[in-house]
Write a structure and sequence with these properties.
Strand order of the largest sheet: 1-2-6-3
Strand content: 5-15%
Order of helices and strands: HHEEHHEHEEEHHHHHH
Number of domains: 1
Shape: globular
Distance between the termini: 53 Å
Number of helices: 11
Radius of gyration: 20 Å
Number of strands: 6
């Protein structure tokens, strides 16, 4: 059921009265100072404990990569180029709420929780003498989150500009921790390059966007209401979210095989 996010909505009124979602804008919630004796060499034991802790905090996946110039925005100067990318599911209550005041409250609360968890993980590393620089998940002026997540082989970028994950499609958000410690490289990498081709045929995210923020090949950040109003129209419309990644991939491969056979017959 879609919840109407108008001020006369009873749920919205109750939330305001209870101050349940009174979000405090405090971008850096670190409680541990930068270490004096900094670790630079990869430590498997520290990272194993870090991954276990990230699961306890509700992160569904984690990736590692080097920061490259193509993922940096506004010529930002970053302290380290070793990046840990953390993946978290977007809550259902935000997905099921129309853009507006209530959805914005849900969105702000989610970002605050995601940020607090990320800074807590950063503090864990600092306690173990790994220096960190945390990129707040809502502060997208520094790094292109979709691009760096794709670089870490966590998925492929779809037509909406969002990353498509095998578990949940685009129903995910990311946060990033840069570290002094070298990080491992994934040996097995899945090929997500086919996603772009599928998205060009689909285009359902652009059709679902009521604010004309998406076209077939461009994303207009100024028109997007994702953060300003908690809009999730493009995510809700995405077949990767509605029908499942494996199902879409199977149909895509089957369709391509069918078209190849058809072309071979025509060329005979």
């Amino acid at each position: 059921m879609i919840i109407k996010s108008k001020e006369e909505n009873d749920e919205f009124k109750n939330i305001i009265k209870s101050k349940k979602f009174n979000v405090k804008v405090d971008y850096d919630t670190s409680k541990v100072s930068k270490p004096e004796k900094i670790i630079y060499k990869y430590n498997e034991n520290i990272m194993k404990k870090f991954i276990e802790l990230s699961k306890e905090y509700g992160f569904i996946n984690i990736g590692f990569t080097k920061v490259s110039p193509d993922v940096i925005l506004n010529n930002t100067k970053l302290e380290y180029d070793n990046a840990i990318i953390l993946v978290h599911e977007i809550p259902d209550r935000l997905m099921e709420t129309e853009p507006g005041d209530l959805a914005k409250l849900y969105s702000d609360n989610f970002y605050e929780e995601l940020a607090n968890k990320t800074y807590a993980l950063s503090d864990f590393l600092r306690k173990n003498n790994v220096d960190t620089e945390t990129i707040h998940p809502e502060y997208d002026e520094f790094i292109n989150f979709s691009k760096i997540a794709a670089k870490a082989n966590l998925g492929g970028i779809g037509g909406s500009g969002l990353l498509i994950r095998p578990e949940l499609g685009p129903k995910v958000k990311f946060s990033v921790i840069l570290t002094s410690m070298d990080l491992p490289n994934k040996e097995v990498k899945e090929d997500y390059s086919w996603i772009k081709e599928y998205c060009k045929r689909c285009n359902k995210c652009a059709k679902a966007c009521e604010y004309n923020a998406l076209t077939e090949d461009t994303f207009n950040r100024k028109k997007c209401k994702g953060c300003n109003e908690g809009c999730t129209y493009c995510i809700n419309a995405c077949p990767f979210y509605k029908k499942g990644y494996d199902n879409i991939k199977r149909k895509f491969i089957k369709y391509n095989e069918k078209m190849e056979k058809k072309l071979k017959k025509q060329n005979k």
